[in-house]
Amino acid sequence: MIKIIFKEHSGAVHEVTGTEGESLMDVAMNNMVPGIDGDCGGDCACGTCHVIVAADWANKLAQANGEEDALIGMTPDKQDGSRLACQVVLNGDLDGMEVTLPEFQM
Amino acid sequence: MSTPLTADFIVDPYSVPLDSIDVSDSRMFLHHTAWKAYFERLRNEDPIHFQKESDFGPFWSITRFEDIQFVDKHHELFSSEPAVVIGDMTEELPLEMFIAMDNPRHDEQRVAAQPVVAPKNLAEMESLIKERVDIILDSLPIGETFDWVDKVSIELTGQMLATLFDFPQEDRRKLTYWSDLALDLPEVTGGDGTHEVRNAGLQECFQRFNELWEERTKLSDAERADKFDLISLLQNSEKTKDMVDRPMEFLGNIMLLIVGGNDTTRNSLTGGILAINKYPDEFEKIKKNPGLIPNMVPEIIRWQTPLSHMRRIATQDVELGGKTIKKGDKVVMWYASGNRDERVIDNPDAFIVDRPKARHHLSFGFGIHRCMGNRLAEMQIRITWEEILKRFEKIEVMKEPSYVKSNFVKGYTELLVKLTAK
User: Fold this and answer.
1) pLDDT tens per residue across span B95-153
2) What is the domain count for chain B?
3) Interface contact B105, partner A, CB < 8 A
4) Quick check: is B292 in a domain?
5) B1 lies in a domain?
6) Would A30 be classed as within a structural domain?
7) Residues B317, B44 contacting (CB under 8 angstroms)
8) What are the chain B neighbours of A76 within 8 Å (beta carbons)?
9) What is the value of pTM for the model shown?
10) B166, B226, B387, B402: least buried by Cβ within 10 Å?
11) Whole-number Å distance between alpha carbons of A86 and A103
């Protein structure tokens, strides 16, 4: 099991677990973490699973592709570490990763 | 159903040969079941359907949810230029707008306009919307038949649009008028409008917005930096600050924002009223539990699907569902069909306020052209329903609605209702 720590914009913290190969979006949805919409169902097509990955963890992730960058570029509150949760796939290196949720999904 | 149909439109899609089915015929949308039946047949028998001849030339119809999502997402395979409605814009006014641009221009212009619907602005708009909804709903007659489209849907979206542009509120109906004109031509969306009326209207619109632009330029930089209306935002961005010198681009983007913020929310506000009349148990559910409203809002937007389609042009040969779409072919994504696709949505014709995964719908599109004002639209609809529930026991539809004649704007010209107070 891989531990993920989601922090809501309000400060509420959810410590949940997922398995290798699941996306960060799946993990949030499976554990009822609020604040992720995932309108397109995890197809990198809507930008409503926006999360901000803590700096220490961001460099452990595979680079965002052009599609993901394009959608994040449309989010007014994007920041360093902004990713789409549907595009972040869990592996053992990510055990304990901290992820912050934005105030709104756009 | 009281909408008259001319003799040569056939309501039953199973009585015509498959290859002669033409879903671009705008008369299909005047009938409350015909469009559903036509699309259902295409989804089942020919989901990637080639139409050899139509009033809009040859085109492909994409009718299943997942195929639409594929096309919408792959903007490198399917260009949005030169237009996103089925018919090309007329040459006398070749409007340019970022929804109908590919990158890099699309991103430059969209990023300039986007802050108007950023969270900070939305939060400020919430109380304003509530105040306006209160005034509009409190002014409605109780126990008398009236037109919900005119008194509520147009009124509310018109006031909101005037706010977004910082346009004089007293002239807000002009915005509605121009919005209705913008796409209403036989060769653009199958509408009945004329070139004379449209050109005159758009000319007036352009003049008014030119004046508005000039007024705003007289503001100091500091004054303008505090303003969050769309005109000021365009003026504040390096890439768009001279847009007024490119009239077709200026007018095009103004029209985009007017139409985008008007027809869509307006027809969803009306569609929700029709939906609770067709599914009265769902109204009871929402009355008992107003906490369902945030889930009901995307369900209304799906059920209504206020824009029937978006169109693309293939940039290369693309294989899809066993067919080869050739480079240069016109491709129409029928959101109205995808949102009724039983492969993805259970019991899709039904309006279900507590539907699971209600947000998984096509009405906002997917990919880089996804609706920019989606959160504002949802907020307007949510607040309207919260306030409706506080005031009215019953909203009774008195007559089948009249529909807009368009293969693009899927909406209502009239919905007569009668209210019972709480």
Assistant:
1) 888 899 999 989 888 887 877 777 777 887 898 899 999 999 999 999 999 999 999 99
2) 1
3) no
4) yes
5) no
6) yes
7) no
8) 114-115, 118-119
9) 0.94
10) B226
11) 18
| CB-CB under 8 Å, A73 with B366 | no
The answer as to whether B204 is a domain residue is yes
Chain segment B350-381, per-residue pLDDT in tens = 999 999 999 999 999 999 999 999 999 999 99
pLDDT in tens, B277-334: 999 999 999 999 999 999 999 999 999 999 999 999 999 999 999 999 999 999 999 9
Report d(CA B49, CA A10) in Å as an integer: 48
pLDDT digits (tens, 9 = 90+) for B90-110: 777 788 888 999 999 898 888
The answer to whether position B215 is within a domain reads yes
In the block, residue with structure tokens 């409203």: B293
Which residue in A has a C-alpha nearest to residue B110's C-alpha? A74
* CATH number of the structural domain spanning residue B353: 1.10.630.10
> What is the count of structural domains for chain A?
1
A105 in any annotated domain: no
Chain B hits for A71, CB-CB cut-off 8 Å, are 367-368
Residue A34 contacts B where some CB pair is shorter than 8 Å: no
> Which chain B residues are within 8 Å of A47, Cβ to Cβ?
370
Containing H/E element for B321? none
Distance from the Cα of B375 to chain A's closest Cα (Å) equals 7
Domain interval for residue B26: 7-421
End-to-end C-alpha distance for chain B, whole angstroms: 30
| B368/A45 Cβ within 8 A | no
What pLDDT score was predicted for residue A102? Answer: 92
Please indicate if any CB of chain A lies within 8 Å of the CB of B287.
no
Q: What is the pLDDT of residues B262-289, one digit of tens each?
A: 889 999 999 999 999 999 999 999 999 9
Expressed as residue numbers, the domain containing A9 is: 2-100
What is the residue whose two structure tokens read 């913290």?
A: A13
In a domain, A106, yes or no: no
Exposure b/e, B46-82, CB count within 10 A at least 16 = b: bbbbebeebebeebbbbbbbebbbbbbbbbebbbbee
**Chain A residues touching B122 at Cβ < 8 A:** 104
Say if B114 is an interface residue toward chain A (CB within 8 Å). yes
